[in-house]
Specification:
Elements lengths: L23 E4 L6 H9 L4 E5 L5 H18 L4 E5 L5 E3 L7 E3 L4 E5 L10 E3 L5 H4 L5 E6 L9 E9 L3 E6 L3 E3 L4 E5 L11 H4 L1
Parallel strand pairs: 1-2, 2-3, 6-7
Antiparallel strand pairs: 4-12, 5-11, 6-10, 8-9, 8-12, 9-10
Length: 201
């Protein structure tokens, strides 16, 4: 139920932030509790970004519920942005695992998402990957929200394409770690639906 007087729970944010300026803050992980979300609002956040590249529906629902409580307690209005997964390709690995890559080594990308990720075998979330690449094509794999650091990203060159695998050569040393690794290729089709079944759900 909405209150009869919406102004009773909302107020203009105090400080030097003009109305036209929007400050986007990504919520979740370290920013899920009511207390932390409230502090983000008080620090000037005007848009809360929900990143659907990770986490399940229940986790994001809890974050959203906590954001509503934080808005009510702080009386500071905040918009919500849903950042959907879309056509993003990811490496299927244990988020706590670190994968060491050496320059010159062979790495196989497989569409078998149940395979265990190792320094020589990386399962990926794109079943069409072998049809999108050919020998000589570049592949870039990096930690999600990468900085381009040579030590946390690896550049690959395709040497062979199979029915369910793509074999590559690593062009640099790298230590791949973090919650999620993303795969970037030049030939990602643009005729696919922008929203996945998970996004729609």
């Amino acid at each position: 139920m909405y209150p009869d007087n919406i102004a009773s729970i909302l107020k203009e944010s105090e400080g030097s932030n003009p109305t036209g300026i929007k400050i986007v803050g990504t919520v979740g992980l370290q920013a899920q509790s009511v207390e932390v979300l409230k502090s983000m609002l008080e620090a000037g956040m005007t848009v809360a970004r929900f990143d659907f590249s990770w986490g399940d529906r229940e986790y994001h629902q809890k974050t959203y519920d906590n954001l509503q409580l934080a808005v009510k307690e702080s009386k500071i209005m905040c918009a919500v942005m849903l950042d959907t997964k879309g056509l993003e390709i990811t490496v299927m690995k244990d988020k706590s695992a670190t994968i060491e890559i050496s320059e010159g080594q062979s790495i196989t990308l497989t569409t078998d998402v149940h395979a265990v990720a190792t320094s020589t075998l990386l399962p990926v979330s794109c079943p069409d990957l072998p049809h999108l690449l050919k020998p000589g094509d570049p592949v870039f794999i990096a930690r999600y929200l990468f900085t381009g650091s040579e030590t946390s990203s690896t550049y690959l060159e395709v040497t062979e394409v199979g029915a369910t695998t793509v074999t590559c050569i690593a062009k640099n040393d790298a230590s791949l770690s973090g919650m999620m690794l993303t795969v970037h290729i030049n030939n990602l089709p643009t005729n696919k639906d922008a929203l996945t079944e998970q996004d729609t759900e």
